Amino acid sequence: MKKRVLAMALVAAMAGTMLTGCGGNGGNSSNTGSDAGSAGTEADASAPAADGAKVVKIGVYEPASGDNGAGGKQEVLGMQYANEETPTVEIGGEEYTVQLEIVDNESSNDKGPSAASSLVSAGVSVVLGSYGSGVSIAASDVFKEAGIPAIGVTCTNPQVTEGNTHYFRICFLDPFQGTVLANFANANFSAKKAYILTKLGDDYSTGLGYYFKEAFTGLGGEVIEETFQEGNSDFTSYVTKAKNEGAEVFFAPVSTEAAALIIEQAAAQGLTIPMMAGDTWDSNVILNAAKGKDVQIYVTTFYQEGGNADFDNGFKGYINSNPTATANNGGDDTISAVSAMGYDAYYVALEALKAAGSTDPAAVNEALWKVNYTGVSGSITFDEVNGDAMRDTAYVKCANTESGEWDFVAEQGVN
Amino acid sequence: MNKRTKMMWNAGLIAALLATLFILEQILPSGSMFFTVLKKGAIYALVAVSMNLLNGFTGLFSLGQAGFMLLGAYAYAILTIPVESRGSVYQYFDGGIIQFTVPVPVALIAGGLLAAVFAFLIGLPVLRLKSDYLAIATLGFAEIIRAVFQWDKLGPITNGSNLLRNFPSFKSVLYPFVVSGICIALIVMLINSTYGRAFKAIRDDEIAAEAMGINLAHHKRLAFVISSFFAGVSGGLLAMYQTTIQASMFKSAMTYEILLIVVIGGIGSVTGSCISSFLFIACSEWWLRFLDNENLYLGGFHVPFLRPGFRKVVFALVIMIMVLFYRQGIMGTKEFSVEGIADFFKNKFGRKKTAEGGASHE
Amino acid sequence: MDWITKNLPYLMAGVSVGGQYALIAIGYTMVYGILRLINFAHGDIFMVAGLIMVYATTAMPIYIAIPLMIVVTVFLGFMVERVAYKPLRSAPRMSIMISAIGVSYLLQNMALYVTGGLSQQYPTIPWISDTVTIFGATTKRVTLITPVLTIVLVVALVLLIKKTKIGMAMRAASRDFETSQLMGIKINSVISMTFIIGTFLAAVGSLLFFTNYTGVTPTAGAMPGLKAFVAAVFGGIGSIPGAVIGAFIIGICENIIKGLGWTTFSDAFTFALLIVILIAKPTGLFGEKATDKV
Fold it and tell me: Domain span at residue C180?
């Protein structure tokens, strides 16, 4: 009996936490005191902050844990840096403080929608994210139902924006990226046989693998396809297979987590053929894994360090000034393309807010179609069908295994 | 209280609950986390009750729930994706080979039936196994099902390991409540029938039950198939809630979560499973989210340790405390009922000699 | 020769993974033998051992870090038993199993919190991380060391159980828990010892495993743990030689399946094998036949 009362008390205590829960959501120091019901104040995106300025909330829907945690964190760093640089925006003649509402979608298609709901419930005007296509597709309907527009930052799978009017995207797409990679493999390594390794249940991975295969076989090449299950850490047999089959390139569009393992095991087994991958591999995780090893790694990406000196210096300063940021960037100040993309996405959102003249998500959604912004990663305008940025170049980089940096190789289009 | 007034009370309570939900839906903004929790909670309540039917009422320790949910979810999704959007969903498989749709309720039931058929087939060999061996064998089957559904040779049907999407989903929170409610009511009726009594007899003592003339194999199979049917239906509902599904979601971690819900609610209590599923979902998705916020201040005091991930540590600690100190769970093997509440107040204020009882009633 | 060069890597990977599974599986099988508990947290303790090593090597040289890692891991295994399992000794078996799931959940989430969700690079251990070439196939030296070390440890363990007093107490406790208590065996110290041995082997296993597969993530222990458990059941849970043989069979089969190109089913195959064994011989390869007491 006593125990049951205690149990009930515990439950009540948990329930009590939601009072603080909603109030604590704010990134600013004051507890704005929105209440348990999560109703009233939360629906109102422009609740006054402590200093009297109005607040506009931008949702950040990114992975901070799981497979894509490393990339997601770097992408968020770009946004946070942009937010620090430009913390306010003028909407309809009034100064608003921009507040980033960051949630972790855990790189998981089943946890994602709940994380997205919590953004909706926090009353954001526009959402940025995500790194990883699967989670973006998974949360798409949540945003759609709430009428909140979303700007995909580095989700490259076509299905993210296809057939909807609320999901936009500022990066290139996988059919393009796959073709670039296939052309590159064909032209530079005269490869006729490619080994493709993708992860089951990862839409980015299967998608890019598929488009690479289409393009590569279109050029008269031959492919061997294999997949691995989530949680697999033994890639020895895959590397062996690639060697035994006489593949000339090893194409593995997978998350950085798996990539680090693959590189390690490829090096241990003396895999000498070039390894290629898409934008996910453009990360210092890969550089660290490859450093001092005898491997060749080529990636396609959105931004090349050195493309915009102001951004590079500012961003490096930001990362080095803050130990948390350094840790989130993987312990050094290498600039990942995703950070640049996150930075641009933030400004695209600000442009849209300005153009909309209101914090109303529907107005922002309308305004996004006409946004034209030149960011550090190039010019961003959305096409009229799906809301994809019109991009026609990708940067190809090669990992320098001695210095642990990226070497610029080429700027490639599809033609 | 006689049986009739009891039923009236229960019906009245359910009607009041649905009416409250309906009204809440009109006043609160639809994006509120409150509804997210209610929707997901209702779905988990159904699967938890279905697991409880096996683990709590029949004494069969099965860990295959996630696999059966997968079957239900896939059957539902595959049968309801509109033909015109199949081209874009099955983009790597030329639109797939299934080119028809069925109405939503039919698809949900089909999901349940598919899970039931698989359960029947799996049950033939594995139900002979005892306790832990049964648990590990069912867990294994769930993993095998997951692998088969990710196989790209089955891609024209299952879309390989890629997401299935664009199928109809529900908007109103009433939908999962009504469907789950009907299913749970059916399970309760089963538990209170002669079959239910036979299940409980098997749970308490297999040998004695057999001696009493209960056909063990038949009843175990029945419980397994029925439980899987409802797990399949809840899988379909989960697909509707998530709006996209993928085989990789249905990992063994999901089964463990459901098992935790059942245990926290009280093994052998239907209402316990329902209550704990709402609490579990609310804690994991909503109430503790503020703990992930690094910049939380309480009256100028910067709360330490908070950063993404802290929520889950606290949640896991709460679960450990529940498991270690409240072994019986929230409800034990008792049920929550009107009569129980009435008794509770009678005991409290009427000072009857039976002090034991609480808000519970067998 | 060419055939060997081509197929040897599969076999080597299989034997090496099998050895690592074996070291984890012993922990499962010993605990199950005495407590009849599937210790779901065992795989996660294996993962935590990996993380401890990652953090220890940032602060101290490797020859201190390795013993420290083993000691801390063993202590963790001991504490888990004392805090989460001991209070439930009289409770139904279901409760203690749930407690194990709870511990597993807690360890994973703590790891998630500490690492911030990022995969941690396992330190390179000199000599055993070096690359060697045999019959034209290149691999890390650890791949070759693992099976040898596993067998040495298992022989030592079997001797311990057969020849020492504590070993005899363990055997008695696994034969009949209650009677052994009546015979004056201090059951709590026997159980603690079981956990200490189990976690010690898991710690060694993690050293070998993560040297080969260098990323430590919060869920890195889940799959190896589950596979090792399957190996323990396969070999006949409660039997140490059974667990070791089961682990080698599973490790090798898994790599052969991958080599044949059935990569989607490499995990599923393990379970299929398990189910076949359970149906044909419900107590596993070397399990003792359980007698039902009425």
Answer: 23-221
